[in-house]
Sequence to fold (612 residues):
Amino acid sequence: MIRRRIDRILAQGEGRQLVWLAGIVLALYLVFCLIGRIWGLDWTDILTLYLDPGNFPIDHQANDIFSLIVTMSGLLILSTLLISVFSNVFSNISEAYRKGERRYRFSGHVLILGGGHPLADMLRALRENRSFDGKDIVVMTSADVEKLRAETEIAVNDARFCKRITWCHGDRSNEEDLRNIRAAYASAIYLIGEDEEAAHDSLSVSSLDLLERICEGSGAPIPCYLALDMHASLDIFQYLANRSTSRLRPEIIHTGDYIAEQLLVDTPFLPVPAGEEFLHIVIAGSERTARSFATVAAHICHFPGFADGKPRTRISFVDAGIRERMDQFVSNHQSLFDLSHYSYVTPEGREVTEPRREYGDFLDIEWEFIDSSLASPYVRAELVKWAQDTGQKLVLAICQEDSDANLTAALHLPKALYAAGIPIAVYQKEHGELMEKAVSTGMYGNIRCYGESGPANDALFLRRSLWGKRVNYLYDLEYGNPPAADADEAWATLSVAHKLSSIASANSIPIKLRSFSLEPTRSCMEALDAGQLEAISEVEHRRWMTSVLLMGYSAAPAADRADRSRFKELKNKQFIHLDIAPYDELAREAEKDRLIVMNIPYIMNEEEIVRV
Fold:
């Protein structure tokens, strides 16, 4: 029993070990002082023998036995045991550090909660971003800290920078762990979670609730970027109003949508249809990754000329046994599909559904759900036909959840697609290097890899939030009552739905500029004539309608749209938006679209704001 207690003490923190050692040393010294009086030894004699064995008397004395006991005790405790304890203390400190169990009084640090796949890209971005120079970086993970640290340091490949990172083992949904890493004193928080984690979103949402409570009170606002895996989780946040009094400023990111944004928004991957052409995006797969690709594409792929008879942008899912997943996707976005053309296609025929008559037909995106595999003769023949069709710009995205299957499919497509230079995106979670090798052969045309294995262009989510913040500030300046003092203040009180709407508007700007051959400069915007400005504004309105429908807003029947007396009530309480209507019905509301168009230089480059 005593042995177990001693072992437990030695295994505990270094402070407790030292206290026990000091107590033993002092207690034994006091006992020796009391006994030493028998032989006439005062406290200084005892102290001399206790601290230095070399003071043991050479001449024979009556107190030799007692002096020997004092000397040997000092030798044992102050030499042998002291060395052992200090060695154990240093060993415990070293082991605790390696395992992420040490805690420090950080302030102004960047806090990353989780060790998931975005971590390495985030750290590289923190290294490159000058605004984070000198800031401590704290990573708390529930995974094996030693293993994660080793993997991350190899991926980052910068020993000097990695010294700024402190690794902590802990649970992001545990309040004590969050307080111990001083979350309330952080300058920014990234809530990314772990890879392949059960209940990922639930744990992260619990962590967000704890962080909001921990960060109550006065002080600087703390941006908190929350990454969610499920669209259902995102849907819930979109219906929540922002009533928090915390200093925490949550930004919600869907990880699948964000990965698609890295390709579709931040690179010129998507071709722009010209004249009477239309864009045709074919997506192999129908699960989470495929739905994210389709959702981001639907937010941004809106082009001029639709009102003059140009065909709609077409998004086609291809997957065997797709019927059930089609029904699920349609039901999840019923408000959008009430206004959409969509078809269920098999090699034997096509079932067509048209927009409900009471709403009208004015959306510029249509949908197909093709019930066949990418490798089937039917789909391969259709791909060749589409690639050779001069009336469409074809894009292929291979977005199945199995990276191995995606790689295999990408390398065995009809050769006509490679020869025609059709843009082909291949989702890869692990095999980025293999895809790069395939691209380097030159045999596979315009093929490229995207996904977790590829680098992130906006790893810290700063660009998307900054542009979205500026879009919202434009609206606030025009329609705020009263307007906010600056963009940050206007953004702080905004609901998640309105933040995502502003970010979607900003994300559409790069492809909109390419569609109209424009540059994001004040001189370019001022050179637009009335007809061009009107055309861009109409594109922005059609984009906005698709975005708010995807977010869960519903349209009102055409007969009810003219009565705007209940506009706010319908919008805020029933999620019915009267502005989901053809552009020519909204002469007054079109000013909002022109406001965004004229201020693209402000959104992208922070040039002076122009009031419309």
